[in-house]
Amino acid sequence: MAESTPLPSTAAWSPQPGGRLSRSGRGPVLAALEAALDPLMLVLSLAALAWFWEGQIRPPTVVLGLLAFLLAYPGSGPRPAALSMLTLRLLLRWGWQAGLLAAVGLATGYIAVFEQRLLLHWLWLAPSAQWTAHLLLRLSAPGLSRLQGPPRPAVVVGSNAQGEMLARRITDSPYEGIGLLGVFDDRRAGRDGVDQPLVGTLAELPDFVRRHRVQLIYLSLPMSSSPRILQVLDALKDTTASIYFVPDMFITDLIQARSDRVCGVTVISVCDTPFRGWTGWLKRASDVLLASLILLLIAPLLLIIAVLVRLDSPGPVIFSQRRYGLDGQEIRVYKFRSMTVTEDGEHIVQASLGDQRVTRLGAFLRRSSLDELPQFVNVLQGRMSVVGPRPHAVAHNELYRKLIKGYMVRHKVKPGITGWAQVNGQRGETDTLDKMQARIDLDLDYLRHWSLLLDLRIIARTVALVFKDARAY
Question: Residue 217: which of 10, 16, 24, 414 has the closest Cα?
Fold first, then answer.
């Protein structure tokens, strides 16, 4: 593969930069607060009472607070519009949580270690603290919404009752982090009592999504329209938008399918990243930990390789390649130079067996994957992950996205230094469409079945392949 590639204009399809969403709509700040608010209020109210009545926070109190937090997390979710509904929901949730804690305490005798007045006051103080915190969150929502960055552009597909309801609720919920651009349908507006204005037909949807960098698509098409649904999904596979069904329906070949609620409306994801919420934190934490440890261990090796590259042939020791990263945004990927040239053109020729551009040292670096070691710096920068779909040359992306359905779905996660495809025989030159199709199939399989254990398995298999795989050149 050539050492550097040009980057065609991405303005026509790259998503608008901005804060990431948690799940299918709410911004990360509000979503995190909503999840932690109720359990935190339980812990803080218990700690305050313990300090007031006992002058200290004893170990049994810490244990009770931890159990209450685990039982209540995540919190009660999006805030209902009416305060009366909020009050009722908080009381019902706290009622069964307190009942369960009391039952466990009585069964184990653990309840005897607490002062009775502390527990009795906690019964009323905890929901009061939760209600007050929710009220303060509601008042501070405008400021928190600004911290989330610009709203993520969204469209609703389907001019029916469900689509109309979702569109109306998105419009009436300015702090959810979603900016509705319009509704798409082949039917005329006003049909079936629906008066939501339409901005285009289903045939016009894919081009609109690319031109306006739409990141959230909500499909509200009836199950009887399954051929239309399949056509829409096929057309949208050339984008990096997250796709959701409204209302519940079943289809096959889902990418990280999960149910969720958007402005109070139930949706099911069709194509989404596996790294939402705590899984995103887990993935990032494992990346930082692994990359830091590996860089500390290989620092002397990096220095030796840098000196050898400089002595082997003229040119830079490390160069950067322009690639598409998460959501199709441009990133810079670092590598040790392994060729005599660093080409920068629209036509990219992959490195092949006996390629005259590969230096003497470069052949060894490429075969052993040592030329990829500087990319651990990319991991610390947040541009890449240790494990994920390998980033392809920009010219190859533009070619294969037209030839392979679902090709762009691999950009729902950060590219990786190694991946599921690479440890399953799809490493090296992809000189035929079948080889690239096999690689993409394995990339999508990784998205469907991701786990931290799978990442560790891939890393272990990568280390073994470094010493015996002859596919890279």
Answer: 24
Token pair in block for residue 422:
């690479």
Structure tokens at 392: 């392809």
**φ/ψ (deg, to 5) at 332:** -110, 125
Give just the sign of the alpha carbon dihedral 144, 147, 150, 152. negative
Reported as half-sphere exposure (CB side, CA atoms, 13 A), residue 97 has a value of 26
Q: Which helix (H) or strand (E) holds 227?
A: helix 226-236
| Residue type (1 letter), 57 | I
Burial of residue 252 (CB within 10 Å: 0-12, 13-18, 19+) is exposed
Measure the CA dihedral 106/110/111/114, to 10°. Answer: 180
Q: Is the pLDDT of residue 148 over 70?
A: no
H helix intervals, 262-332: 278-312
Write the pLDDT tens digit of every residue in 19-42.
333 334 445 556 667 778 888 999
Sign of the four-CA dihedral 142, 148, 153, 155: negative
User: Which structural domains are found in the chain, ordered by start?
Assistant: 28-147 (no CATH), 152-271 (3.40.50.720), 278-466 (no CATH)
**H or E element that contains 357:** none
Provide mean pLDDT across the span 124-128.
91
**Numbers of helices and strands, H then E, in the chain:** 13, 11
Given a contact cutoff of 8 angstroms between Cβ atoms, the answer to whether 235 and 205 are in contact is yes
CB atoms within 10 A of CB 375: 23
CB atoms inside a 10 Å sphere around CB 63:
12
Is pLDDT above 80 for 122?
yes
**Alpha-carbon torsion (276, 279, 285, 289), positive or negative:** negative
Confidence of residue 429 (pLDDT cuts 50, 70, 90): low
Q: Which two tokens stand for residue 128?
A: 């009061």
SS3 386: strand
Element (H, E) at 152: strand 152-157
**pLDDT at residue 437 is higher than 90:** no
Task: With H, G, I as helix, E, B as strand and everything else as coil, classify residue 182.
Answer: strand
Closest to 375 in 3D by CA, of 394, 388, 358: 388
Sequence-distant (6+) residues with CB within 8 A of 54 are 61, 115, 118
At residue 24, the pLDDT reads: 40
Report the b/e string of 326-349 with b at 16+ CB within 10 A: bbbbebebbbbbbbeeeeeeeebe
Residue 352 CA to chain centroid, in angstroms?
Answer: 34
Residue 122 identity: W
